């Protein structure tokens, strides 16, 4: 079938054959289909959608368009976790050692970040000499021996998705639900795990701003995963304010260590334990989520999760004593208090602006060539629902620059103070199994 016929077929709301979707992905990756036809095809999908079978086929074809990780040599059920992204989200570093301490192998591929802070790999590089470039044999050996490894993504992972995503970004088709879901799930399928836990964020600091859209995305991804024989669970969690208290690479690492020691902010600890519980169920270590939460909390309290994290840091080339002395991890030269000018309750925090403030300090990158400053970031002293008096601190800026006036102004813009205490917003809205 000619590409123009495929475009017309989807434009008219007809279902595509598996072979037609596979041919599109194969030929577009090989640059045998021009961008203008791929754009028209993406727009047709935007308006007409895809059913479960079409979405699963598209996902599988994009996963097969490049490198795929073969984890069959790793013993046990490999469970992966993916977050749709947010401000202050460092759950990967908390739940991975918890799950590994229970004997569930965590073999995770992660990337660098563009935006308000670094990605998973950037945050880990707050530990000096931490190695993320691991060949497949070394990666698998680490997971088999120690149950946990995190490596950088291959440059040839899901090339079809990279091409299609770049096209969607400039053709107003980013929000096509089947294309969002297939984009995320193709990378998870290519990463080779047996089961997947999805943390779908909703709120002002998330890709999905409203709950119905977040539910639709979560259900679509769960359906795709199950259709492709990956047991998949989705948790829809709040991102209407930053998660935890720290936003910035080394700051977030230090908060992770605090949680693994049994402390840390309530929201990041509860969400990490819940996600870990689902992974423990999928990995066959807990009968249900409640039992998984109990096990996860035990593994934190008795120090086994922290010990796994310590070994993980050592296994990948850095100094494990930094886990016991986080004050030796990168620290900024200056701290600047941003105080409230009025009394009341914190009624809202625009998470995206907090992220932008961290980026302005140097915690993120706007282009791939930018250099991240691991030490800088934003420390939240007041969260939604907290009472503040005039002059109380809202945040502490951790900076390596003398001039922070613009960052302070952005922080003040991000906070809303009111006379009435706001209703408590759920941390977890719903779960889909």
Strand neighbour order, sheet with most strands? 1-4-5-13
* CATH homologous superfamily classification of the largest domain: Nucleoside phosphorylase/phosphoribosyltransferase catalytic domain
SS summary, helix count:
17
| Fraction of helical residues | 40-55%
Count every beta strand, where a strand is a DSSP E run of 2 or more residues: 13
The radius of gyration computed from the alpha-carbon positions, rounded to a whole number of angstroms, is 22 Å
> Quick one: overall form?
globular
Percent strand? 15-25%
Summarize the structure.
With 433 residues, this protein is α/β, with parallel strands linked by helices.
Core attributes:
433 residues, alpha/beta, Transferase, Pyrimidine Nucleoside Phosphorylase, Chain A, domain 3, Pyrimidine Nucleoside Phosphorylase, Chain A, domain 2, Aldehyde Oxidoreductase, domain 3, 3 domains, four-stranded mixed β-sheet, four-stranded antiparallel β-sheet, 13 strands, Glycosyl_Trfase_fam3, Glycosyl_Trfase_fam3_N_dom_sf, Pyrimidine-nucleoside phosphorylase, glycosyltransferase
What can you tell me about this protein's structure?
45% of the residues lie in helices and 15% in strands. It contains 17 helices and 13 strands. Strand 4, helix 10 (211-227) and strand 5 form a beta-alpha-beta unit. The protein has helices at residues 3-11, 18-29, 35-48, 52-63, 91-101, 120-124, 136-146, 159-169, 177-190, 211-227, 249-260, 266-282, 289-301, 304-315, 321-324, 351-361, 405-414; strands at residues 79-83, 106-110, 148-152, 195-202, 231-238, 246-247, 334-339, 344-349, 377-380, 387-388, 393-399, 415-418, 428-432. The chain has 3 domains: 3-49, Transferase, Pyrimidine Nucleoside Phosphorylase, Chain A, domain 3 (Up-down Bundle); 79-324, Nucleoside phosphorylase/phosphoribosyltransferase catalytic domain (Pyrimidine Nucleoside Phosphorylase, Chain A, domain 2, 3-Layer(aba) Sandwich); 331-418, Pyrimidine nucleoside phosphorylase-like, C-terminal domain (Aldehyde Oxidoreductase, domain 3). It is α/β, with parallel strands linked by helices and 433 residues long. The protein is globular, with a radius of gyration of 22 Å.
